[in-house]
Description:
- By secondary structure, the chain is mostly beta strands.
- The chain has 2 domains: 69-161 and 274-280, Beta Barrel (Thrombin, subunit H), CATH 2.40.10.10; 163-270, Thrombin, subunit H (Beta Barrel).
- It has 3 helices and 18 strands.
- The strands form 2 sheets. Strands 2, 3, 6, 7, 8, 9, 10, 11 and 12 form a 9-stranded mixed β-sheet that branches. Strands 13-14-15-18-17-16 form a 6-stranded antiparallel β-barrel.
- The model is unreliable at 1-26 and 47-57 (pLDDT under 50).
Amino acid sequence: KMKFTLCFLAIIYSAVALPAHVTFETPDELDLSKLVPNNIHVEPINSSHLDLPGSRIIGGAEVARNSIPYQVAVIINGNSLCGGSLISASCVLTAAHCTISASFVQVRLGAHYFNIEEETQVRVTSTSIKNHIYYSDVTFANDISVILLPEEVNTNDNIQVIPLAPTTAGTFEGSNGLLTGWGRTTDASNAASPTLRGVYVDVIGNNLCRTLFGSLITAFHLCTSGTGIVGGCTGDSGGPLVIDGVQVGLLSLSASTCEAGHPTVFSRISNFRTWITENSGV
């Protein structure tokens, strides 16, 4: 029987949009040891099918400062962390399991040290969040949401929009993509990474992924093995997987032990393009 380890409580199934008079405290510098990464963990049903190296270590390497200008840090309710991507001057794409219970979020753009004020960094608070109406906290289907910013941000060398894979995109099986985020760098770590890190991962076929995660894996998912390198971990949820300058996935779920060598599972962007357009105009 599939064993599920769920790291959040989903209490809202539709878009969050609070009235303008609602007040809240905007987070500035946060205690990283108390910032709770927001992730879904699902245990593989048959890890014996894995054909991945035992040396698979999460964390990757620190990226060059401001070399990933589309990357966004998403602080939910001032106490939990996810990743995201800027898909227009006024819209951030992330995972629904990150925002389903959000009263407000603060997005941090142009960041490298996301928890320190930087000249390149822009911080915007929003209460306008659209979660996929059919997101499920049981099957984790439709794990996608958009955050609408109150006004457009100025794009520059440090803050840029990432193009999205079209509906006609292929499976990307065998392709190598870049995953980035501020998630944990080891299973033993209890805090987010202070700096943006990245790792190149290989896309595997959904059939192989399904032998590990069962019926959870559908055509709306994309999986990576991270052969020889690393995959995503706690705190990277909602973050972008990019191939040849185009976002093809956003991190949805992983096994609870990040260093065990299990695949990382993403929401497949091409299968959600219609929903993204309807809810963001992109």
